[in-house]
Amino acid sequence: MARRRQKGRSIDGILILDKPAGLTSNEALQKAKYLFYAAKAGHTGSLDPLATGVLPICMGEATKFTQFLLEADKTYRSTFSFGVATETGDADGKILTRVDATELDADKIEALLPDFRGEIEQIPSMYSALKHNGQPLYKLARQGIEVERAARKAMIYKFDLLDFRPGEVAEADVEIHCSKGTYIRTISEDLGKLLGFGAHVSSLRRTIAGPFNLEDSVTLEQLETIRDGKRAEDLDFLLRPVDASVADRLAVELPESAAWYFRRGQPVMTPSVYRTAEEGDIVRIFCDAGAFLGVGEVLDDGRVTPRRLVAGQ
């Protein structure tokens, strides 16, 4: 059987996209993939259509390291609107209740924020992308189906009130630094219930995802402007190296003699790891010529065993 020809360029690296509102994460991914004419690409951590901000897109060999970005902490800036509760917990949903929130003030919100800091438990929204028997919850919700969801733990490292605007529909601008799997819309709903007014997310912007922030990002409009009338290769300068997603991990350099075995999936001994890392640590591996080989896990005897390898290195 003839092998199907690969469509697109074989290109490796990470694009830090500033996702616009109105697109799903996959729609934004497909637009970026098309502009780069990339054969293989995937995003790391979905943003709702309402949401904007940092959406790392891994291309080629970088897709092997998406799990490290998926597991990374995130930071968001959001506006919570009090007095209106919606079906979806955001501004795109049908209004369920409307209550005059004129009496709400900043002090009442500030008094409750400590309850949301540290480890918390959340019941995911039926309009989340979490799957039930292989089906995303939001697809079930659109069919009028509601299923029981178990509470999930999340860590809130920071939850600050940035600004407050009183009114019949009061608005609070907040900043939240949290662990993976945190549902910002659920925080707004839970806070609204405690205050007695109901609430929803009216805007959401991801400002940091792992090691990447908005200053690192580029918009689809910028990509289209650069690409207009030019080759896809003219966008390549915007890509971060394949190892950028694990840039916070210890870097280990192997002599070529050890790198040869590591490339073939065998654990290798390196004195530098034995002195500076602990069992279970994930480290970046380079050969002494500078090429990134992949990531490895430190074993109890100080050896490093391959966990993700870059092809062709």
Characterise the protein shown here.
This protein has 313 residues and is an alpha+beta fold. Strands 1, 2, 3, 4, 7, 10, 11, 12 and 13 form a nine-stranded mixed β-sheet that branches. β2 and β3 form a beta hairpin. 20% of the residues lie in helices and 34% in strands. α1 runs parallel beside α6. The chain is built from eight helices and 18 strands. The model has no long low-confidence stretch (mean pLDDT 92).
Structural class: alpha+beta
In CATH terms, the superfamily of the largest domain is Pseudouridine synthase
Distance between the termini: 29 Å
What's the tally of helices? Answer: 8
Unreliable stretches, pLDDT < 50, 5 or more residues? Answer: none
Radius of gyration from CA coordinates: 23 Å
The CATH topology of the largest domain, please? Pseudouridine synthase
* SSE series: EHEEHEEEHEEEHEEHEEHEHEHEEE
Estimate the global geometry from the Cα principal axes: globular
| Chain-averaged pLDDT | 92
Largest sheet: 9 strands, mixed
CATH class (first level) name of the largest domain? Alpha Beta
Number of domains: 3
Number of strands: 18
Helix content: 10-25%
Strand content: 25-35%
CATH architecture of the largest domain: 2-Layer Sandwich
How are the secondary structure elements laid out?
Layout: E1 13-19, H1 25-36, E2 41-43, E3 52-59, H2 66-70, E4 74-82, E5 84-86, E6 95-98, H3 106-112, E7 118-122, E8 131-132, E9 135-136, H4 137-142, E10 152-165, E11 170-178, H5 184-195, E12 199-209, E13 212-213, H6 220-227, E14 251-254, H7 256-263, E15 268-269, H8 271-276, E16 282-287, E17 292-298, E18 303-309
Parallel strand pairs: 3-12, 14-16
Antiparallel strand pairs: 1-3, 2-3, 4-11, 4-12, 5-6, 7-10, 8-9, 10-11, 12-13, 15-18, 16-17, 17-18
